[in-house]
């Protein structure tokens, strides 16, 4: 299932329109109905809405940048883990393939398949944040 992201620009425009509309409603409720004053106030409200749009868009883009950096850090950790595990296990697999009998070949193949599945599961868990590999608090240490 493809998860569709909301459009950042539409969300920002909505926030800006909300700020502008709120300002206009407050101005209409609080100020006397003088055309010149209201025109200037409404123009100011639209400028405030534009600024709110820009700020909202900037916040969303910064959040996306941070999310991307965290994802790249996690990918680097998983790739490093994958590299080390495979480098540690592969010589054992080759030794069994060279010196072992048919049963040893089968067991070695199953072991490699289990390692592949474990690495795939760990990768998926890390990316969907099902498992957090961050620092452990003292309360979590005592609970474990």
Structure notes:
With 144 residues, the protein is mainly alpha-helical. Helices cover 83% and strands 0% of the residues. It has one domain. The protein is built from four helices and no strands. The radius of gyration is 29 Å and the shape is rod-shaped.
In short:
Helices cover 83% and strands 0% of the residues.
Number of self-contained structural domains: 1
Helical residue percent?
over 70%
Mean pLDDT across every amino acid position: 79
Instruction: Compute the number of strand runs.
Output: 0
Distinct helical segment count: 4
- Beta-strand percentage range: under 5%
What would you call the shape?
rod-shaped
Q: Tell me about the largest β-sheet.
A: none
The SSE string, one letter per element, is HHHH
Going by helix content, strand content and strand pairing, the class is mainly alpha
Work out the radius of gyration. Answer: 29 Å
Low-confidence stretches: none
N-to-C span: 35 Å
What secondary-structure arrangement, pairings included, does this model have?
Blueprint (H helix, E strand, L loop, with lengths): L7 H23 L4 H65 L2 H26 L10 H6 L1
């Amino acid at each position: 299932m493809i998860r569709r992201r909301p459009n950042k620009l539409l969300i920002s425009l909505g926030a800006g329109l909300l700020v502008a509309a709120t300002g206009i409603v407050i101005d209409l409720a609080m100020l006397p109905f003088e055309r010149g004053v209201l025109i200037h106030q409404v123009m100011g409200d639209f400028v405030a809405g534009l600024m709110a749009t820009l700020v909202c868009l900037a916040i969303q883009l910064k959040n996306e940048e941070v999310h991307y950096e965290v994802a790249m850090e996690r990918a680097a950790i998983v790739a490093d883990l994958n590299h080390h595990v495979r480098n540690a296990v592969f010589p054992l697999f080759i030794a069994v393939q060279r010196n072992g009998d048919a049963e040893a070949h089968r067991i070695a193949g199953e072991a490699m398949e289990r390692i592949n599945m474990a690495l795939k599961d760990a990768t998926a868990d890390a990316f969907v944040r099902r498992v957090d590999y961050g620092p452990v608090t003292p309360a979590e240490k005592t609970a474990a």
